[in-house]
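For reproducibility, we list the full input for the adenosine-5'-monophosphate-propyl ester complex.
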Amino acid sequence: MSETLPMDEKYNAHMSKYFREYEESLKDPEKFWNEKTKILDWFKPYEKVLDDSKKPFFRWFTNGKLNVSYNCLDRYINNEKRNKVAFIWVSEKGQEKIVTYYGLYKRVNAFAKALLNMGLKKGDKVTLYMPMILESPIAMLACARIGVVFTFVFSGFGAEALAQRINDSKSKIVITADGVYRKGNIVELKKIVDDAVDLSEGVDSIIVVKNAGNRINMEADRDYYYDDIIEDTYVKPEEMDSNDPLFILYTSGTTGKPKGIVHSSAGYSTWVSNTLKWAFNPQDSDRFWCAADIGWITGHSYIVFAPLMLGLTSIMYEGAIDYPKPDRMWQIIERYGVNILYTSPTAIRLLMKFGEKYPELHDLSSLKTLGTVGEPINPAAWQWFYHIIGKDRCPIIDTYWQTETGGFTISPSLDLGLPALKPGSATFPLPGIDPEILDDEGNEVKPGEKGYIVLKKPWPGLMLTVNNDDKRYVDVYFSKYKNKYLMGDYAIRDPEGYYWLLGRADEVLKIAGHRIGTIEIEDALVSMKEIAEAAVFGKPDTVKGDAIIAFVTLKHGFEKNAGLIDSLKHRMRDNLGPIMVPEEIHIVDSLPKTRSGKIMRRVIKAVYLDHLPGDISTLENEASVDEIKKAVEVIKRSGGD
Ligand code: PRX
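The corresponding predicted structure, in tokenized form, follows.
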């Protein structure tokens, strides 16, 4: 496959389906989505495809009734899909569990009954803090079955971060596991939940799945083992409105408080199932492995909902991809005959570091298609993935999207017609997605110029709102450019129309594909008794994309000493979780600030990275820049903090 195609060859026949569908999706969305939403089974037809009377609160498929768990399960149990494998689950220790569609249906019903018995009803909220075990999709689907809105909190978050999300979502029940193995060690999830519940309000019960077998504290009349409460019976799926929320998923933004992204039942389901089909065109006999964590949007959409709605067989792996050895991922592909592998640039860069000898140990010939998500993929990682893993046979589907968009927005499409790929470009928008790249004034930039990427038209996967905060939804996403959805990334459209996504245009970092707000970390730092001020920024990291660097000043009466930085890191780990711990924390006497008192993160970052700090004439304390410079020199001399 040529990596760049000349203009005149680009519009060749095999892409005609793409151009036809794309054009129709924008010209006549009513007709287009009427057709595409037939991918779902409806209890009652909707009245209108799109109600945009309350822009930017777009409502799709209004007044229709359906149930997402029904669409993932019930519709297969009386046909040949009944005995098809839904998930092949593999643990870090190599244990394996296989569940068919019928088996999953039975287990979802049994857990839905347990939730009903606990008094949950339609519209209630629960928090899931669970590892990559089968009970996670079971819990998500059981909630969906009875109309309970779930909030999944990634199990790498610490107690305070969990408590904040429990409180904001007003969850009554937390579902967790005793623990999980991570690189041979047990992470004590139940203990973290106990701490989080102490810090939060309104949690009546905790349900615990036995997984790692570690000792845990069970409080009478509050804590219940999953195995003790499930009941093998049928639970009628609740008739949900198209625009009833399916789940809330928190994501970082530019304030200390994460945003609860609320997704709908019908629009979201229509979007994720169609986008999976368009981008990867999975076949009935394929084995699909989305190697993300279920606690992030990628896991929600493309481990659970879309693959089940398309009736696919998925691999679910609980463990680290480089443990016990760096060939773990390749071993799983060989053992289970994986046909489609969907992973992140960070994972590729990590495995690339160990060299070609590990993939060479395994037969990877089952692979047909590769995919990436979460951050821009650098050409070197793309080439390695393409040549060494895909053996030049497998297209790389670079999917650009985000928590708020529900599913892929810009991505090559195997189903509609694969464009010639260019390493590092997510290529073209999927149907329904109408991007534009704008400058600060809202003018479209010229081809090849960098600007902010916006989406001009609504699409069914767009979130409903930010939980409890309609204003924030409008302010963050629809106010820089009125009624255009601001994705928060920089992008370039090249002269051939390909989109190149360049990373965040705001104070959000991408650490190993995880989205982390610098201000969230600063808030956590300044909430510690020793710290007066904090400035956090990202340093480019060859594997993780960004690494977190913090500069802090101490409160009066506290002194820098050898153990302080370790102690701060330790507490950050407990409070926020390992993914939020700064790699370096530097203690200085003052931070550069504007006269109005705003800390100049950009100046600190520039000095740290040896770039020119730009205009510093607005600084209140120019001397602090010299101080940062000195601190950086010390760091460089000592090779660390
Ligand atoms: O900056 C973009 C980056 O990830 C952000 C969304 O993060 P999150 O909501 O956590 O969802 C990640 C999984 C969908 C985007 O704003 N991003 C995601 N995919 C890509 C990407 N950047 C470049 N190329 C991608 N393929």
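Confidence is low (pLDDT under 50) at residues 1-9. Residues 251, 297-298, 373-376, 398-403, 426, 487-489, 501, 503-504, 510, 515 surround adenosine-5'-monophosphate-propyl ester (CB under 6 Å). Both points were considered when choosing residues for closer inspection.
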